[in-house]
Amino acid sequence: VQLVESGGGLVQPGGSLRLSCAASGFTFSSYYMSWVRQAPGKGLEWVSSIYSDGSNTYYADSVKGRFTISRDNAKNTLYLQMNSLKSEDTAVYYCAKFGLAGEYDYWGQGTQVTVSS
């Protein structure tokens, strides 16, 4: 199993970024996937999740209305569209696979998002 995030970078407040997570080594279309972030000096924070078929999505209150999670099962790729970015969105963003045992069993290496003027 491999999860590779990309798309992070430095953006000004109010700007946008689109993160991608390329998945391989498992049947991507069968699994619930999530984005989780870790701000400097803080613990992990769940951001958003999506059903295996994309039919349902969930968001943390802190990002609701600004972020959109999606997936392309034909391309084995998970996305996070982030709009109206704030300084408090600065973090390393990880994609994570939710395993059959009821917990996240694989994580990507993370991609840094920095929101600063």
Write structural notes for this entry:
By secondary structure, the chain is mainly β. Helices cover 0% and strands 52% of the residues. The chain has no helices and eleven strands. The strands form two sheets. Strands 2, 4, 5, 6, 9, 10 and 11 form a seven-stranded mixed β-sheet that branches. Strands 1-3-8-7 form a four-stranded antiparallel β-sheet, with no helix packed on it. A hairpin with a 5-residue loop joins β4 and β5 (44-50).
Any chance you could write out the topology, listing elements then pairs?
Blueprint: E1 2-6, E2 9-11, E3 17-24, E4 33-38, E5 44-50, E6 57-59, E7 67-72, E8 77-82, E9 91-98, E10 104-107, E11 111-115
Parallel strand pairs: 2-11
Antiparallel strand pairs: 1-3, 3-8, 4-5, 4-9, 5-6, 7-8, 9-10, 9-11
How does the overall form come out from the CA principal axes?
globular
Quaternary structure classification:
single chain
Tell how many strands the DSSP assignment holds: 11
Number of helices: 0
Largest sheet: 7 strands, mixed
Mind telling me the C-alpha Rg? 13 Å
Secondary-structure-based class equals mainly beta
N-to-C span: 37 Å
Overall mean pLDDT: 97
Helix content: under 10%
